[in-house]
Write a structure and sequence with these properties.
The protein is of the alpha+beta class and about 475 residues long. It has a four-stranded antiparallel β-sheet, covered by helices on one side. Strands 13-22-18-20 form a four-stranded antiparallel β-sheet. Strand 7 and strand 8 form a beta hairpin. The C terminus is likely disordered.
């Protein structure tokens, strides 16, 4: 079925619009550390060449000894055709010389500009065709003969240039939006810390206290006499972690492994953003006595007590019903709150606040070696203690505001994904339907340009054939073997 192309456009196969269409070497060299870089598909990204990825070297004595068939030049278009199929870039001027493995094809365009070809290779239609033409089991690839048959839509040369300029302008705008979206995460992190700071100053629940004037002050829970509270509300009490917990205990030093036998053991990787992530679990064979010492109950808080990273020391997570009767490893401290004095969620949130993080991290930064917080140091950490009813209200309000921040973060992620997939792909789809830039009736039709290229190719091929016949004739007269 004939395509309904815009005025001045035509269709042609990749073979017709390229002077060279080859893949890289089918005989990769042994790994060595000198010579000419031999890149693979992993080094080709959309729009650039990544020399940071690992690549091999091929020993090249001089430029003329390099395989001319796979020689890469400025303006060539590189396309990944094995494994991660469909990534394309243009070889820029001034880049270091390199050669390629067979997972990358080299296309030297004629009748189309290199960037126009690259962008059309990125377009949804061509990406779909490349995927459909890929064959193989362990690793799929596109054969060159199939690749060469792919039909490309070709506008006039001047329109190609206008399309490329428009695509790049829109992508630049898209990148600016992405940069602005990237700024949202630190703002949300700052928002969360501001919420915590307001919560533990008493500002977050100031209206709640006005509406609940008869709540029993926190010092009454502790059976302490009223005293100065360092600027806190009259119903709050400044105390220490040691005064509001039943116990702090180190975990088991017994070796654990991934065999699903024995007791699940929580470790440092399981402490994630204030919660337990039990996907990566190990197990230990504990005696009854050992288990009783390190078993967990809902509401227990696990704290990382030792780590090479300062930012991880003192991080906590709260144990839920799902982790009941799990054990925990030696680099963790189990903090068992006194539920009559402190709400576990309140205590867990306090450990994540900026103020307490400073009190944990600053002393560690002045020491050398392994970063560590012991149980006595954890007990001495100060904590502002409101009445239990207000603790619950603080937790409720913090969680409500954090959910709002999480919703914004999720929307931001969705927008970023849409930028990459929907918006950028929509730009390319419009470009190659002829809808991105206006047509100019004064532009030379692409069919005229393509016919001229075909005639030039035919003349070149005829010249090559004539030269080959002459060389073979001379070789016969001299009784020498013919040259291929």
């Amino acid at each position: 079925m004939l395509k309904n192309l815009p005025d001045g456009w035509t269709s042609a196969s990749l073979k017709e619009i390229t002077d060279k269409l080859v893949d890289g070497s089918h005989n990769p060299p042994k790994k060595q550390d000198r010579g000419l870089p031999m890149l693979s598909a992993r080094n080709i990204e959309n729009g650039y060449i990544n020399f940071n990825e690992e690549y091999r070297y091929i020993e090249i004595v001089d430029f003329e000894s390099e395989d001319k068939r796979t020689r890469v030049s400025f303006g060539d278009v590189l396309l990944t055709i094995v494994g991660a199929i469909g990534r394309a870039t243009v070889v820029p001027n001034g880049i270091q010389r390199f050669t390629l493995q067979r997972s990358v094809a080299v296309l030297t365009p004629v009748s189309v500009t290199p960037k126009f070809l690259m962008y059309q290779l990125h377009s949804p239609r061509i990406q779909t065709e490349l995927t459909n033409k890929a064959k193989g089991t362990a690793q799929k690839g596109v054969y060159l003969n199939k690749l060469s048959q792919i039909e490309m839509d070709i506008p006039p040369l001047n329109e190609q240039k206008r399309i490329v300029a428009k695509i790049e302008a829109l992508q630049e705008r898209s990148q600016r939006v992405k940069t602005e979206l990237d700024a949202i995460k630190p703002l949300l992190d700052q928002f969360r810390q501001s919420v915590l700071a307001a919560a533990f100053r008493g500002d977050l629940t100031a209206d709640w206290r006005e509406n609940n004037p008869d709540v029993e002050p926190a010092e009454m829970l502790l059976h302490h006499s009223p005293q100065a509270t360092n600027g806190l509300s009259d119903t709050w009490y400044l105390t220490t972690v040691g005064d509001i917990v039943k116990s702090l205990k180190y975990g088991t030093s017994k070796k654990c492994n991934y065999d699903v036998n024995g007791i699940p053991v929580l470790r440092i990787p399981n402490i994630v953003n204030g919660t337990i992530d039990a996907l990566d679990l190990k197990y230990a064979d504990l005696t009854k006595e050992e288990f009783e010492k390190v078993s967990l109950l809902p509401g227990d808080i696990l704290m990382i007590r030792s780590n090479g990273s300062v930012s991880l020391v003192g991080r906590t997570a709260i144990v839920t019903e799902a982790e009941k009767n799990f054990a925990y490893a030696g680099y963790l401290i189990r903090i068992r709150p006194n539920h009559q004095l402190v709400n576990p969620e309140y205590l867990n949130l306090w450990f994540s606040s900026y103020e307490i993080r400073l009190q944990i991290e600053i002393p560690l930064r002045s020491t050398s070696g392994v970063n560590n917080i012991n149980s006595d140091e954890a007990k001495r950490l100060p904590i502002p203690l409101p009445p239990l009813a207000e603790q619950l209200e603080i937790v409720r309000r913090i969680e409500s505001l954090f959910k709002l921040a999480d919703a914004i973060a999720n929307q931001k992620s969705q927008i970023q994904n849409n930028l990459e997939t929907l918006i950028n792909q929509s730009i390319l789809a419009k470009a190659f339907r002829g809808e991105l830039v206006p047509q100019d009736p004064n532009d030379e039709p692409a069919s005229v340009l393509l016919e001229r290229i075909r005639q030039e190719k035919a003349k070149t091929q005829a010249t090559k054939s004539k030269t080959k016949k002459t060389n073979n004739s001379n070789a016969t007269q001299l009784n020498l073997p013919g040259f291929d």
